[in-house]
């Protein structure tokens, strides 16, 4: 056994997860990636509400879209000797080393929503588990809807999420692989819109000008889809009719656009992590063994279901 000198004084073997004592209250870090859209705001609120309900202290940080700041945020939590850290990593590779730093400091990490590159960091060895949606499946669900409901529209523009983020990587893989296997479709262009509404609008405008024959837009999230709707309307095209619009997230404005016929299909990605996150933390302290991934169940929205789903959206 190779012993390591740790910030907390705990001694761990390489690859061994730190233990967490069973206590009536915890001081827990939550390193958020950004707060520039309804999905992130809903996730943060869920975490804060659950911590308050349990009487836990939540040390909250917002990386404001900066990977470097998020690394610094986690290191600050390590220095503060929090009991555990919840992390939504902005990118899947740069956050891997700091996850190991927390592990070596005797602080267990639970990943939320976004994962770490499995070649660089392992569940059960470097962090406890990942809680989130199956991003590959989300992309597959969008592709399968399009395969069945395309009405002859098969020329696709893809608006990707943040480069290096696991949802962007997996939502692209799930969709692209399924569409390629189906045959008969063409992805005319694929470019990052950084999961942001205005960037998505700008990218959509540029790609629509370059590819006037595009009749499908697949956006990796609702914010970019809503931006693409603005680009389509500015170009004199009817979103949902002239050009099919497909999306992921299920935020309230996205679902309203489904109900209005401007988004044709939207797969939910549930942001309400608080109860599951803290339940997992408590279980881990009691010795529960968790799989590498805990997958959330997500619904989807079509014109037939969007109006009834609005009340439960975020």
- Spatial strand order of the main sheet: 2-1-3-4-5-11
- The CATH class assignment of the largest domain is Alpha Beta
Tally of alpha and pi helices: 10
- Number of discrete domains: 2
Q: Give the low-pLDDT segments.
A: 1-14
Approximately what portion of the residues adopt beta-strand conformation? 15-25%
The run of helices and strands is: EHEHEHEEHEHEHEHEHEHEEH
Largest sheet descriptor: 6 strands, parallel
Rg from Cα: 21 Å
What is the average per-residue confidence, as pLDDT, rounded to a whole number?
Answer: 94
CATH fold-level assignment of the largest domain: Rossmann fold
Structural class: alpha/beta
Which of globular, elongated, flat, extended, rod-shaped describes the shape?
elongated
Gap from first CA to last CA:
48 Å
As a percent range, the share of helical residues equals 25-40%
The second-level CATH architecture of the largest domain is 3-Layer(aba) Sandwich
Number of extended strands: 12
State the main characteristics.
single chain; 314 residues; alpha/beta; Rossmann fold; 6-stranded parallel beta sheet; 6-stranded mixed beta sheet; 12 strands
Describe this entry's structure for a reader.
This protein has 314 residues and is of the alpha/beta class. It folds into 2 domains: 27-131 and 271-296, 3-Layer(aba) Sandwich (Rossmann fold), CATH 3.40.50.2300; 135-269, Rossmann fold. 39% of the residues lie in helices and 18% in strands. The protein has 10 helices and 12 strands. It has helices at 38-54, 67-79, 96-104, 135-149, 166-182, 197-210, 222-234, 252-259, 274-285, 306-309; strands at 27-32, 57-62, 84-87, 109-112, 130-132, 155-160, 186-192, 216-219, 244-249, 265-268, 293-295, 300-301. The strands form 2 sheets. The protein has a 6-stranded parallel sheet with strand order 2-1-3-4-5-11, sandwiched between helices. β3 (84-87), α3 (96-104) and β4 (109-112) form a beta-alpha-beta unit. α1 crosses α9 (274-285) and α4 (135-149) runs parallel beside α5 (166-182). It is elongated, with a radius of gyration of 21 Å. One of its GO terms (molecular function) is carbohydrate binding. This is Sugar ABC transporter substrate-binding protein. Its main location: other. It comes from Deinococcus ruber. Keywords: Signal.
């Amino acid at each position: 056994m190779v012993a390591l000198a740790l910030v907390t004084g705990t001694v761990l073997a390489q690859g061994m997860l730190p233990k967490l004592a069973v206590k009536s209250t915890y001081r827990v870090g939550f390193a958020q990636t950004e707060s520039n859209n309804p999905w992130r705001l809903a996730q943060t609120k869920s975490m804060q509400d659950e911590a308050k309900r349990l009487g836990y202290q939540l040390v909250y940080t917002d990386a404001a879209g900066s990977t470097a700041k998020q690394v610094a945020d986690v290191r600050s939590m390590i220095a503060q000797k929090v009991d555990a850290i919840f992390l939504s990593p902005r990118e899947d590779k740069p956050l891997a080393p700091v996850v190991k730093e927390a592990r070596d400091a005797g602080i267990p990490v639970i990943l939320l929503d976004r994962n770490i590159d499995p070649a660089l960091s392992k569940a059960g060895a470097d962090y406890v588990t990942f809680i989130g949606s199956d991003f590959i499946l989300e992309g597959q669900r969008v592709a399968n809807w399009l395969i069945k409901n395309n009405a002859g529209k098969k020329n696709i523009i893809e608006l990707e999420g943040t480069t290096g983020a696991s949802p962007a990587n997996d939502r692209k893989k799930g969709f692209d692989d399924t569409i390629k296997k189906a045959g008969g479709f063409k992805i005319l262009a694929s470019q990052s819109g950084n999961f942001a509404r205005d960037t998505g609008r700008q990218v959509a405008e540029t790609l629509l000008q370059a590819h006037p024959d595009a009749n499908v837009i697949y956006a990796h999230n609702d914010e970019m889809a809503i931006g693409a709707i603005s680009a389509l309307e500015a170009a004199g095209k009817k979103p949902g009719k002239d050009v099919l619009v497909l999306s992921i997230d299920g935020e309230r404005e996205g679902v309203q656009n489904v109900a209005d016929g401007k988004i044709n299909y939207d797969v939910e990605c549930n942001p309400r992590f608080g109860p599951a996150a803290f339940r997992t933390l408590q279980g881990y302290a009691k010795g529960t063994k968790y799989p590498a991934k805990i997958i959330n169940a997500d619904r989807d929205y079509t014109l037939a279901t969007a109006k009834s789903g609005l009340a439960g959206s975020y």
